[in-house]
Write a structure and sequence with these properties.
The protein is α+β, with helices and mostly antiparallel strands and about 550 residues long. The protein has 20 helices and 19 strands. The strands form six sheets. Strands 6, 7, 8, 9, 10, 11, 12 and 13 form an eight-stranded mixed sheet that branches. The longest helix is centred in the last third of the chain and has 24 residues. The two termini are about 20 Å apart.
């Protein structure tokens, strides 16, 4: 395949064009007074997406020119990285990246060396991060956490209390999943025990028809990664369990034919209590889930390999145990699992380390979609082992409203977790703006690095300027008012038009959100500035010669075949 080679300054100008166009679409959503963006759904006839989330907007924008789209993709990557790490701060990262890219391009055009500019920006970044962490307010209480979530959800009434309750019960390491609700109100459901979304194979396993659930007290748990199709294979194990007066939960790939019929007949007749369910996860992910469940329940996963025993050879010592199991049509909850807690915590710590490796990847490093899926898989495994989960059902008047609220509420939860980890500072771009004086007087080794240092220093004011402009304020007047106050915690509530201490007026941003937004913005702009040549494949369009979509649809034939 032939190659197209694009040299600077053409390459950088086109990439900057993509950055500017994506940023222009995203920046309007910034701040509590920022308006929404409506995005046409890729499928005709489906309602458009209505959102105020910067990452959702950035992800929807693409361009025909591939170099321009490369610039847009850089912003999509930086927003995606921040979204995965802390949920909130995606628009802030885009504002910072645009300002940095514009000033860097001007400096390179004026003759400054790109690599030296990068070194200067990295030096300034390190000082800003250090300053933010030193100034952070870390002794947070429940009221402040509720205000943080209110800011992130753009002051959604009632949401802050529910998210604060979730954090209080689950902790920062707990797992809270979000789903589309069926009513007008938001609902929070905290589950004591490990729960995963697979219900009983047959409704005849139900022990309580009023509540439509099957409950097993003090059960053994069989983890079997194969199909069970012969009841006779289970008889030796069932006789031992019945002799102890216990029940059995079967977690298997499937129970079919005569085996399922036999289990149901014995269950209905009250000979012994048993419930069969499918395991969590799908495909290659299922193997890890089996191993996690085995560790959690203190049993052995009977896998589909030559080293595992046959079903008729399984003994009670190879089964897991729990205090109680509750199975519904859509979920299985294991309460009081009997696994070794030390080993479980070691596995959880290992999974956290693997998740941190994914989060540490720079924008554009590996597949963004693959990274996200791998991270979500690790989070699901951690929540399975952690033994305490929550489900937040988002309500609303329509599907469009519910989906838009779901994104904001999920981001708010992640933002609150970030605040508990590293503390908070004034929001609305004020904390970043207050870092500008701390960089004054720093001398870099050469003028090129000094210019890079100055570029980042000047960019720190961009978020504050954009937020105040979106709210209809004169940004220069706001900056003058802030400068007149010696208290660095003095901030502006653009919604109520009130100045005051940031904790009192509820304008709060997590330090971790600001740090990662700035760090990812610097990273993506450094990549663009230090790129001198772009080499791309030239697509072969000759295969489409003579092809007409209308003709193909009419004749049901494809001339390319």
């Amino acid at each position: 395949m032939s190659k197209q080679v694009i040299y600077n300054p053409e390459a950088r100008l086109k990439m900057l064009s993509g950055i500017n166009q994506v940023a222009r679409a995203v920046i309007v959503t910034m701040g509590s007074e920022g308006p929404a963006v409506m995005i046409q759904h890729r499928t005709d006839g489906i309602m458009p997406i209505f959102t105020r989330d910067g990452f959702t907007v950035a992800r929807s924008v693409s361009f025909d020119d591939r170099i321009t789209d490369l610039g847009g993709r850089m912003l999509r990557d930086v927003a995606g990285a921040v979204s995965r790490q802390v949920g909130d701060g995606t628009t802030t990262a885009i504002v910072l990246a645009q300002k940095l890219a514009q000033d860097c391009l001007k400096s390179v055009t004026a003759g400054f060396h790109p690599l030296q500019l990068k070194i200067g920006m990295d030096s300034a970044l390190a000082l800003v991060e250090k300053t933010l962490l030193e100034k952070a307010v870390t002794d947070l209480n429940t009221d402040w956490v509720e205000k943080i979530t209110a800011v992130a959800t753009k002051n959604e009434p009632g949401v802050g209390k529910l998210l604060t309750e979730a954090l209080d019960k689950l902790g920062t390491q707990g797992s809270l999943s979000f789903q589309l609700g069926n009513g007008l109100k938001d609902e929070l459901d905290i589950v004591d025990g490990t729960q995963y979304p697979q219900g009983f194979i047959s409704p005849y396993f139900m022990t309580d028809k009023t509540r439509e659930e099957a409950v097993l007290e003090n059960p053994y748990i069989l983890l079997y990664d194969r199909d069970i199709d012969d009841m006779m294979d289970l008889i030796p194990l069932l006789e031992e369990i019945k002799a102890e007066g216990r029940s059995l939960l079967i977690i298997a790939e499937n129970v079919i034919d005569k085996a399922l019929t036999g289990l149901l007949l014995n269950q209905v007749r009250g000979i012994f209590k048993v419930v069969a369910v499918k395991p969590p996860g799908f495909g290659d992910k299922r193997l890890n889930r089996f191993k996690d469940l085995a560790l959690l329940t203190g049993g052995q996963a009977i896998l589909d390999d030559y080293s595992s025993p046959k079903l008729e050879q399984v003994t009670l010592e190879q089964l897991g145990q729990a205090q109680r199991v509750v199975v519904t049509a859509s979920s299985t909850t294991i309460i009081g699992a009997a696994g070794d807690q030390i080993l479980i915590q070691e596995r959880i710590e290992t999974l956290h380390q693997e998740a941190d490796i994914i989060l540490a990847k720079k924008p554009g490093q590996g597949s963004a979609t693959g990274n996200k899926h791998d991270f979500e898989e690790l989070e699901d495994r951690i929540s399975l082992l952690d033994g305490r989960t929550g489900v937040f059902s988002v309500g609303g008047l329509s599907d469009v409203e519910i989906k838009e609220r779901l994104v904001r509420i999920e981001n708010a939860y992640m933002s609150a977790k970030a605040a508990l980890e590293e503390g908070v500072l004034p929001g609305g771009g004020v904390a970043l703006y207050r870092c500008i004086p701390t960089l004054d007087g720093v001398i870099c080794p050469n003028s090129d690095q000094q210019q890079g240092f100055a570029i980042l220093q000047q960019a720190l004011a961009a978020p504050l300027q954009k937020i105040t402009q979106n709210a209809g304020f004169n940004s220069e007047t706001v900056i003058a008012t802030l400068n007149a106050q010696a208290d660095e915690h003095f901030a502006l509530d653009t919604q109520r038009h009130v100045y005051g201490h940031f904790l009192d007026i509820g304008i709060i941003d997590p330090v971790k959100v600001m740090r990662l937004a700035l760090r990812n913005a610097v990273s993506v702009v450094s990549t663009m500035m230090t790129t001198e040549t772009v080499v791309m494949d030239v697509p072969d369009l000759s295969i489409m010669d003579g092809y007409s979509p209308e003709w193909a649809a009419a004749t049901r034939e494809d001339p390319r075949v």
